[in-house]
Amino acid sequence: MKLTRRTLNRTALDRQLLLRRAEMSPVEAIRRLVAVQGQEINAPYFGLWSRLASFTQDDLSDLLYGRHVVRGSLLRGTQHLAAADDYLWLRPIMQACLSRSRQAAFGKATGGVDLGELTALAREHLKGRTLTRPQLRDLLAARWPEVEPLALGWSAQALLPLVHTPPNGIWGTGGATPFTLAEEWIGAPLSAELDVETMIVRYLAAFGPASAKDIQMWSGLTRLREVVERMPLRRYTDEEGRDLYDLPDAELAPEDASAPVRFLPYFDNLVLAYDDRTRMMADEHRRLVCVGAVTNPVILVDGFVAGMWWLTKAGLEIKPFRELPSEVMAEASRMLAFAGQPEAEIRITA
């Protein structure tokens, strides 16, 4: 069965809770989405606000302080928020991606370092306490003074399951980045099994139908096609003839479903979850949204990216890719109220 781009768009929006704001708790939504991008501190707050009928900053802060949700390196080796019980099985799967990224960035600098010893020493330093990145880096540099301290600190972060402790991850909070051992913070051991099939099932429930390359783009893993091929999944093709996979009982959204205006934050996984991003935006817009390592905040109009936005202390700046409907301004005003800046100026730039 061939699926149109609009069917793929509406189905993705539906599974991402963006066709209508959902009546579910923030932790339920985070589980539904597998993990929420957290490269920028405030991004997951905006992402959840755009998806939930009732959400405040304190809702997510309470989950972080209560250890129900944790922030750490997960998908693609980048910072994500995940339910604590999901972190326990997802983090071991991501180790291959984290190790590969570490080797590419710091392999040469740490060529003379025994990585097993580094991991064990970093674990010992962190046992029973929290350290900032500079503190951990300096402790490791005492053992390897000839090695660039930055390379040692980042290597430990990639090789050990670590989470950031609050106030890191709390709305509007910057400053030092504290680390602690994930298993101690959560109070449970990491999974000993690499359950990649469960990860694929969860991805498809939140982002499907999708190709094997889409799953690889979202996760940062490679060679997943063989895994996908042996799973009992439903198969489709898109308009370009690419193979797509979905859960056998997952429903497709009607392509004529109404899609309201939505503001998505920096690095939102809906934008990053596909190798082929045309289900969400035109190629000429992708080049403006995804610039180097940055994925800018976007505005969805009729389900597709129609502009970008940035919120600063000076106000809200909107850069449209085409003429925007009045609903954009109404949603912008609601977002400013959520952000605590109801009187902020809204500027539309060319």
UniProtKB/TrEMBL annotation:
<dbReference type="Pfam" id="PF06224">
    <property type="entry name" value="AlkZ-like"/>
</dbReference>
<keyword id="KW-0238">DNA-binding</keyword>
<feature type="transmembrane region" description="Helical">
    <location>
        <begin position="288"/>
        <end position="311"/>
    </location>
</feature>
<dbReference type="InterPro" id="IPR009351">
    <property type="entry name" value="AlkZ-like"/>
</dbReference>
<dbReference type="GO" id="GO:0003677">
    <property type="term" value="F:DNA binding"/>
</dbReference>
<keyword id="KW-1133">Transmembrane helix</keyword>
<keyword id="KW-0472">Membrane</keyword>
<protein>
    <submittedName>
        <fullName>Winged helix DNA-binding domain-containing protein</fullName>
    </submittedName>
</protein>
<keyword id="KW-0812">Transmembrane</keyword>
